[in-house]
Amino acid sequence: MSEHSELDGMLAYAEAIQNPRRDDPTWPMPSFDGNDWAEAFVAQMAKQGITVDHGQMLAWFCGALMRGYDEARMRAAETADA
Q1: What DSSP string describes 15-38?
Q2: What is each CA distance from 14 to 8, 54, 67, 71, in whole angstroms?
Q3: What pLDDT is stored for residue 21 in this prediction?
């Protein structure tokens, strides 16, 4: 893969993260919005006949996403210090 096409791919991914489309089959994967994840999870559970509280899932997904962000920042800081 050439550097140019890698950059194009990175740009497309960055744009997808900023503007996730709900008709994208990978949604909510490009999103860092806990509400998107909660919405997708609640909808998936509803398809299986399971009722899940959106507010609880929103809190859970926001916490999980933030923990992942914190972990990435910590690892980046360790790498920069090495």
Answers
A1: HHHHS--TTSTTTTTT---HHHHH
A2: 10, 27, 21, 20
A3: 74
